[in-house]
Specification:
By secondary structure, the protein is an alpha+beta fold. It has four helices and eight strands; from the N terminus they run αββαββαβαβββ. It is 32% helix and 36% strand. A hairpin with a 2-residue loop joins strand 3 and strand 4.
Length: 251
Amino acid sequence: MINYKVVLSALTIIFFAVIALFIIRYFNIYIPLYVINTTKTSEFSVVGEGKVDAKPDIAYIRAGISVKGVSTVLDAKAAIDDTHNKIVDGLKSLGINQSNIQTTAYTISPNSVYGNGISTTQGYNGDASISVKVTNVNLVPKVIDNITSAGANEIQGVQFSINNPQKYLEEARNQAIENAKEQAQRLASELGIKLGKITNMVESVPTVPVQTLPSGIYNTSIGDLSGPTSPQIEPGIQIITSTVTIYFEKD
């Protein structure tokens, strides 16, 4: 005997399924598929770190020339040019290669004064900046003396860096690898894990620090730096680091 209720229920389910499939296809609906990865890892990873002290061997000095309220544009230009050329000649006399001397800014603008809602021009202001790469850090005090004696009224900053950091990075990396191996052996012994061969190593991107003295630490507009003593500029020590993650097979 046919159970019409069962047949009717089955036909109803099929009908709604067909309607649902039609809607999905017509409206281009996608149903997301979730896949659960049940594979267990057989790797053991350890992070190691290495540090190397490096003494900076190059310096970058930024100097500025500033004139205010000069009567004409030509006078402002002449004042800047005179000081600028004296600085460049002085740097060359110290053995600084011309390719390591760069003029990074040169501007002349009206000195605008506002009063009673009216702007008037009272002379002209001029500014120029020079960047110097010093490949012998022992010369830095003499370079500053030379620049200020030539007429620069701003020392805008001093940076120390390392010309060839790669050798220090490699040394730090080797230390990090040895550190990771030592930790792996110790942890494996404590956890009762038998380690196999190394399957992978990932190193975080190391950065070489740049030591910077604050901008304007020397400023001849507030005093004369051309006295009998030179400023004591110390390059200090920079720390080069490397961090590696080493992956081992677990036997």
